[in-house]
Amino acid sequence: MWPRPGLNIEIKTPDQIRMMREAGLVVARTLRLVAAAVQPGISTAELDALAEREIRAAGATPSFKGYHGYPATICTSVNNEIVHGIPSPSRRLRDGDIISIDCGAIVRGWHGDAAVTVGVGSISAEHAALIDACQAALWRGLAQAKAGGRLGDISHAVETSIRAAGRYGLVEEYTGHGIGTAMHMDPPVPNYGRAGRGPRLRTGMALAIEPMVMLGGPETVLLEDGWTVVTADGSWAAHFEHTVAITADGPWVLTQPAPAGGSAPHVPPEDHAGSPAVPLEDQAGPPAVPPGDEAAPPDLGHM
């Protein structure tokens, strides 16, 4: 599961982490706007247009559009679609659907990437529980993004949270990833594994952690469009993601909205990290920016 030796992991300076925070805030505002627009009858193409307007109005660039030929600004994955669903004018949401919205933005060459899953209208208790389990697992993983730990601590926390929540499938073929001057970088971040394994976590690293969870089995199928990944058994899926920086003060969730009048939120202490889907918008704290002597010079090989 763990990558081969020779990973090229980019270490950011404090100023570079701050620039990533700017991109993260664009992503956070865009996701909030798009999620609020979700309702029965709206098309996924309309959601995509809304996202692109918001990102460009902020002076940012969509990360996804044109990436290896991807044709849209966001990914909109509905029901049994796990990730990378392509927005379409013909795909109109219906009451009871669930939709994953994945969004990325670039500011001054630095990327932010996040995803949420929301219900359309009134959804079933089963689907609401799936969404809660996936989001809670994300926060469990984020809480382990601490300097001195191992990448496997994050993976193990995500998997343990999902296994404790119920009989859910957990995607193994697709993972989280490093992020910075490129959207997808070393190291890959699996959603399963053993604690204490994998690369050492260092101040200045940034990761996109993204559990993908389904009601059925873990098998997936890639559709003929070359992008959309669906569950093999037709079961519905949820997907959440945040970009997190590893700092001397703990995990800094760069794609989480800042509290009004406050600085960016930290992940809550570990004994609170399992709280189901608790937003941190009302929790202010000191800025999680590492001191300058804690960060190594950036690896510019990916620029």
Q: Helicity range of the residues?
A: 10-25%
Strand order of the largest sheet: 8-7-9-14-15
The biggest beta sheet is recorded as: 5 strands, antiparallel
Q: What is the beta-strand fraction? A: 15-25%
Query: Can you count the helices?
Result: 4
Query: Termini separation (Å)?
Result: 27 Å
Low-pLDDT sequence parts:
268-303
Q: Helix- and strand-based class?
A: alpha+beta
Give me the count of strands.
15
What Rg, in angstroms, do the CA atoms define?
18 Å
How confident overall, as mean pLDDT? 87
Gross morphology: globular
Order of helices and strands: HHEEEEEHHEEEEEEEEEE
Task: Explain this structure.
By secondary structure, the protein is α+β, with helices and mostly antiparallel strands. Helices cover 24% and strands 22% of the residues. It has four helices and 15 strands. The strands form four sheets. Strands 8-7-9-14-15 form a five-stranded antiparallel beta sheet. Strands 1, 2, 4 and 5 form a four-stranded antiparallel beta sheet that branches. A three-stranded antiparallel beta sheet has the order 3-12-11, with no helix packed on it. Strand 11 and strand 12 form a beta hairpin. Helix 1 runs antiparallel to helix 2 and helix 3 runs antiparallel to helix 4. The longest helix has 24 residues. It is globular and about 45 Å long. It starts with 13 loop residues before the first helix and ends in a 50-residue tail after the last strand. The C terminus is likely disordered.
